[in-house]
Amino acid sequence: MSILIAPSILSADFSILGEEVKNIERAGADWIHIDVMDGNFVPNLTFGAPVIRAIRKVTTLPFDVHLMIEKPELSIDQYIEAGADRITIHAESTVHLHRTVHYVKEKGIPVGVALNPATPVASLEPIIHDLDLVLIMTVNPGFGGQQFIPYSVDKLQQVQQLKKSKQLHQLKIQVDGGINAETAPLVKEAGADVLVAGNAIFGAEDLEYSINVLR
After folding, report:
1. Would you name the residues annotated as active-site residues?
2. How many angstroms separate the CA atoms of 210 and 80, rounded?
């Protein structure tokens, strides 16, 4: 399976966000990763459905919407209507994870579950058969530009083993946080299928080269 690259627009220049999205599409990105933060589940506040709707007009790339918000079940519809092609929610953000996952699935949207660094992989076992994606946070969520947490590699390996043992061949394993030319080989070897990167891509002079280095 080829590695997918999903640049995180959290690291883009918001003053020219539409152009930034067009540029990474031309450079060969596979998905656009959109970190929605509410200032409650994580300390930062980013963008919501109106921004997603606006940039939906400038690209055909899939929108990989990562909801770092409390009680995502209350606002999932607005992100789907704005143009989300897949939605990832945090296991820690809702007390009704199974219900919320199935609500997204009923809408015909691929669904993922994200785990914070301190959340054990075992928490996925009751729900993993229902998922299209598992996102392992390799930093604590809330801010871009953080340092990669080394024990994340062990968690990735655990998810990969769980995927194999359950024969979930279509399940994608995604990583988000501190991904660059040095850490990308580590997570790919551990089983990652999708790499989210922000500064390593948007901070580069040559976008196409930066994407290919990660791939």
Report:
1. 35, 176
2. 30
Structural domain that includes position 58: 4-214
What per-residue string of b and e applies to 85-101 under the rule 16 or more CB within 10 Å gives b? ebbbbbbbbbeebeebb
* CATH code: domain of residue 130: 3.20.20.70
Strands (E) in 63-157, as ranges, are 63-68, 86-90, 111-115, 133-137
Spell out the residues 6+ positions from residue 175 whose beta carbon is closer than 8 angstroms to its own: 135, 136, 138, 152, 156, 187, 192, 194, 195, 196
What whole-number distance in Å separates Cα of residue 12 and Cα of residue 3?
22
Binding site, by residue number, is 8, 33, 35, 66, 142-145, 176-178
- List binding-site positions for a divalent metal cation: 33, 35, 66, 176
Q: Write out pLDDT tens, residues 170-182.
A: 999 999 999 999 9
The predicted model scores a pTM of: 0.95
